[in-house]
Amino acid sequence: MTTVDEQRTDEQRTAVFRPAGTPEGLEDLRTLVNTAIDTLRDAHLVRRGPVLPGGPPAVAEAARRALEGPLLPERPQAPDEVFRELIAAYANWAVDLTHPAAVARMQCPPTSVAIAAELVTATLNQSLHAWESGPFALELERYVVRELAELAGYGTDSGGTLTAGGSLSNLMAVLAARDSVVTTPSGGTPFADGLAGLGRRPVILCSDATHFSIGRAVGITGIGEDAILRAPADPTGRLIPDELDRVLAELPADTVPVAIIACAGSTDEGWVDPLPELVAVARKYGVWLHVDAAYGGGMLLSPRLRGRLEGIADADSITMDLHKFGWTPASTGVFLVRDAHSLDALSQQTTTLNADDDKAAGYYGLYADSVQATRRVDALKVAVTLRSHGRDGMAELVDRCHELAGHAAGRVAAEPRLQLAAAPALSTVLLRWLPGTDTDADAFNGALRRRLMSDGTALLARTRVPREDGTNPVFLKLMLLNPATTPEQLDLVVAGIVATAEAMEAAQDGPAAAAPDHGGA
Amino acid sequence: MTTVDEQRTDEQRTAVFRPAGTPEGLEDLRTLVNTAIDTLRDAHLVRRGPVLPGGPPAVAEAARRALEGPLLPERPQAPDEVFRELIAAYANWAVDLTHPAAVARMQCPPTSVAIAAELVTATLNQSLHAWESGPFALELERYVVRELAELAGYGTDSGGTLTAGGSLSNLMAVLAARDSVVTTPSGGTPFADGLAGLGRRPVILCSDATHFSIGRAVGITGIGEDAILRAPADPTGRLIPDELDRVLAELPADTVPVAIIACAGSTDEGWVDPLPELVAVARKYGVWLHVDAAYGGGMLLSPRLRGRLEGIADADSITMDLHKFGWTPASTGVFLVRDAHSLDALSQQTTTLNADDDKAAGYYGLYADSVQATRRVDALKVAVTLRSHGRDGMAELVDRCHELAGHAAGRVAAEPRLQLAAAPALSTVLLRWLPGTDTDADAFNGALRRRLMSDGTALLARTRVPREDGTNPVFLKLMLLNPATTPEQLDLVVAGIVATAEAMEAAQDGPAAAAPDHGGA
């Protein structure tokens, strides 16, 4: 009898559809990938800033040209032409995260080895929900999660999963915390009874510096954002353990504290809540402690900085994003729990996955560890990136970003017209231009940021920073996640901000005062 | 003054960290990608089945060898060596989705053009939450979502988002439905009041064929799985509109119907609920109608099959997965809403994203359309895949899978010892081996599936199918999502199943009866 394998090759060669994973498809892929790399190089070489100038109208116009016509034209079009046109537009009008002035968001410029791993991940298209969806991928995910848990100081009873990002990790944390206090009058799982099983009004405790994804998670899980109680914080925004203790002691009897959410690396200033003290308070009241270390978790990689995360190993759950400090492309979310059983509510029975006899024979997947079913494999890029850099290499990358922030802060402080919010705690620098007293400083800084974007000279973030005088002004933010940037380059970025602000002021005083400040001319 | 751009090149060349997006990093990437493609080709050529033989113990042993040692060794290791070793193990022990006998799960073998797009996506690492995180990527996502909404028949008021998979799309659907009935006594958003604002006991109506991710979504959103009311269905598992009408009319006064969940392509048999009639019932009672077309949504691409989805354009929300029919790698989830305002509960204010003055100037992202913040761009692979295949090409791919199912069903029906569950509705074939009366058929079919996996000859799914005699036996399932497979190859897959079952029976009758049936010897 001819086997399937003997029969395949000739027939597949003539087929209209060539999957990427066959030898013929792989050669198509090689050609396309070379085109892609050439296109990315060309886009990089012609660009003179972190983004092309012109702002939203110019991007909209570029999109109109590149995306003209239907997504599904009637007839097939030559793949290489479609591909070349679309990726050229995509690359030309992308933010160049390798540029020293692309410091607007917590997106790192990823390493080549991580990108090559993504190619393998995508081509093989394994999934993690069942053994037969990706047998080796499952082992790899378990290995990566276990080693990350160990890095955080968790023991062998811990569990966790890679996720599609920090927001989903935080959602899983709120879920695990919620389900730890839901009683189950029906005798079923916390999932079965829902919030009706709660009995009392839920309360979530955190500070004002807590990331907005926590609010969303509280909304999604049905607890309701009104349940969030902002506990007193010190001037840097960090929770005050004694005050939190008092708040918990004074909670009304008809309420139930669901979780304390601690921040390890606030996205603005990079502060870490006092974890050891929060652990003590959480234990005293038997309340779930979640540490959102989406940003600050990278300090675990640095012997110099990891002391700031002391206590994290005693938290009930941890969020980390390796697409921030970690230099893998998004998404590389991480969610860890100190006790693997905290995820039990997710392990429903299904008729199609992980039957008991299969499980007994070793054929089962990670469906029950995640809120997803089909789930792309993010572990391969993590494994190759961390292994190829090693402890020393990763530490150096994190430390460099931290040092760059220190350098940039010094440079900002030396500029008389720039105000620095505070010495950088981790790798962000908060600054604002101080215009004359007759100008609205918030509006000016907002406009300055837009001008830099529409000029294509710098991409900054923006936020508001509570000041000791009770105000909450707009600040601009540099987020430094590119270890290849040099201090000298950052000097030029800061100088560019100053020059643009000065030019805007000069224009306001001069005849061009009526010109629009945004949208690109 | 030297500009940042003039200063970059020389310094970056000597840096320890070379991001993939720089010209030097791109050359590193080219080398690694060539290694990757060679490794994938080698793995493909040596493999004689959809997976290497040996089952879980063999995979565990391979993982032990490949993953020996810490994820973070002290010193950096040569990237190309780490990479080659890990991807060789990953590829060798992966499920080969291009193999005709890899029919266990709804994972498609993706096209080369989609994979090359993933490389671009990963290298540029854009995100969709803010303008400055990916200006062109935002335009592309909007374009792709709009065109997919149009494909579903939605109008210009519709909205939606790409998601990390069908489970998250279904979560968003339950969330939107929930928030459409939550009253807001505080005058805030549905998110603010949570389920406390519901007042009455929520009810979710669906059939037994509804995907388990709906149960999860109902659990996550705090509604509680006990709120799920399985409405009467016909023998194929489809909701009966008149019965649903009666159930709704008879709901107790202290309950509130939150949503009707319709199935468009059940994962086992591929049936579609009677959508036009369900639309009428949903409208009569003012209840949210969600259509989970994660699997069946692909029929929109086929003129021959899309009539089966008639009525979908009148649903309030739709889930689709382009990583099933769509031939892009996971994740390519799609969530569509008929009225874009259905997602308003997600658009909280934050201090860091989309300030009003930025928004007025066109600088804003898609943060408010999704449950994520940083979000990877899945639209590029969709755009290049759909455009390069066109309507005719995509229709042909979907139709081929449908035809393959018909062919395989015929082949199964012709085997006296195999039982076919029913004529295939879409692209799955349900079959089981009929052992002698003294053998537990469920246990035998479970063992048969494991034997095929541990032999490395075929990967099938498994489920239970309710029969007219009231039993619910184990069936095995072929999920046909590879249009490159030929009918002749499928004949051999079925023949292989028969031969293995016969060999197992012979062994049971003979001296080897005590041999273990699983785990691979």
Compact description:
The structure is a homodimer. The first copy, chain A, is α/β, with parallel strands linked by helices. Chain A is built from 15 helices and eleven strands.
Describe the structure.
The structure is a homodimer of 521-residue chains. Chain A is α/β, with parallel strands linked by helices and 521 residues long. Helices cover 42% and strands 11% of the residues of chain A. In chain A, the strands form 2 sheets. A 7-stranded mixed sheet of chain A has the order 1-7-6-5-4-2-3, with helices on both faces. In chain A, strands 8-9-11-10 form a 4-stranded antiparallel sheet. In chain A, helix 11 (275-285) links the parallel strand 4 and strand 5 (288-293). The N and C termini of chain A lie far apart (72 Å). In chain A, 63% of the residues are buried. At the A-B interface, helix 1, helix 2, helix 3, helix 4 and helix 5 of A face helix 1, helix 2, helix 3, helix 4 and helix 5 of B. Chains A, B: This is Siderophore biosynthesis L-2,4-diaminobutyrate decarboxylase. Chains A, B: It holds the Pfam family Pyridoxal_deC.
